[in-house]
Design brief:
four-stranded antiparallel beta sheet, elongated
Length: 322
């Protein structure tokens, strides 16, 4: 079989394929990266279009994420209103207060316990009737019950957990009544579940749309260079040798697109904060509106790079058999 090997025209010895620059994985990676960057410089317009498409697609996803994160934060802030109130017929002595506080605090899901005397309850009542205090003339604090206000942890604010907690409280001797706004809790948790379901549906749809757009955009990039792929295949280049620079190119395009989308989203966010006061009745900065958390930004950057890589991988299948 040796006689069929190609020979060098100068030395008449079997031809040996030249190695890539450098040895080992580092040398190959450096060669493929250099090749990918060269391809980008040689096809600036096509790559700008591809990166621009990825940027706009991911900007839509990141904008949805920003809205969803702030809705979740607002919902969590509202959930702090989930409060259970325990009423007593009379003011409790210091010793009795400590005993009840310890019993309640020992229950699962309790984050804070606050004792409200009859006098404090009367002050709150008057504050709610501000401007109409004359209605309470002659009313004594003794008509109002003393109470414990119990705040629950975030993980125990769903309807089932609150109902179990209230049932446990009702079994304690000495407690006259327990209130927690049952209907409000149910409606609030139904609203939270709706927001999460809507977020999952819209998020899934946007992700599928972005994958489709990115894949087809990169496919156009590779299609414009199909002659180069065919020539490389004809001269004996391996599949990996042909595909590696294109895969790295897609990775770079996706990373650049995701980075630009985060920058544009931040610019939009800052612009909205500084100009919203002119057309809104409240100040978004003071209302708790926040930018994407770092883990979301990192996930978005990683997702962009993966989208570019997967888009290149799927697009190459049309020209190179895996």
């Amino acid at each position: 079989m040796n006689k069929w090997k190609k020979k060098s025209p100068t030395t008449n010895k079997p031809y040996k394929r030249p190695t890539l620059t450098g040895d080992g994985f580092g040398g190959r990676a450096g060669f493929f990266l250099a090749r990918a960057l060269t391809n980008i410089r040689q096809n600036v317009f096509v790559n700008v279009v591809t990166i621009g498409t990825i940027t706009l697609a991911l900007l839509i996803v990141s904008l949805f994420m920003l809205i969803f994160v702030n809705l979740e934060n607002a919902a969590e802030n509202w959930s702090e209103r989930v409060q259970v109130t325990v009423y007593f017929d009379e003011d409790l002595t210091e010793q009795t207060q400590v005993a009840f506080r310890d019993k309640i605090s020992a229950l699962s899901g309790v984050s804070r316990v606050n004792y409200v005397t009859r006098e404090e309850a009367m002050r709150r009542f008057k504050n709610r009737l501000k401007g109409q205090e004359t209605l309470l003339e002659g009313v004594r604090p003794e008509i109002l019950p003393a109470s414990f206000e119990i705040a629950l942890k975030r993980t125990h604010r769903d309807t089932a957990s609150v109902e179990n907690f209230v049932n446990t409280l009702k079994k304690m001797p000495g407690i006259t009544e327990v209130q927690y706004g049952e209907e409000w809790v149910r409606r609030f948790n139904a609203f939270l579940n709706f927001i999460r379901l809507l977020g999952a549906l819209l998020g899934g749809f946007l992700i599928i749309a972005v994958i489709f757009i990115v894949s087809n955009t990169i496919k156009l990039t590779i299609y414009s260079r199909r002659d180069e792929l065919e020539v490389m295949s004809l001269v004996g280049a391996t599949r990996f040798f042909i595909k590696a620079p294109f895969l790295l190119e897609g990775l770079i395009q996706g990373a650049a697109g995701s980075f630009l989308s985060v920058l544009m989203l931040f610019a939009l966010y800052e612009g909205f904060l500084h100009n919203a006061g002119s057309f809104l009745t409240f100040n978004p900065a003071s209302s708790g509106l926040s930018f994407l958390p770092l883990e979301y930004i990192g996930g978005l950057l990683l997702a962009g790079a993966l989208l570019g890589f997967i888009g290149s991988l799927t697009s190459l299948k049309r020209f190179i058999n895996v």
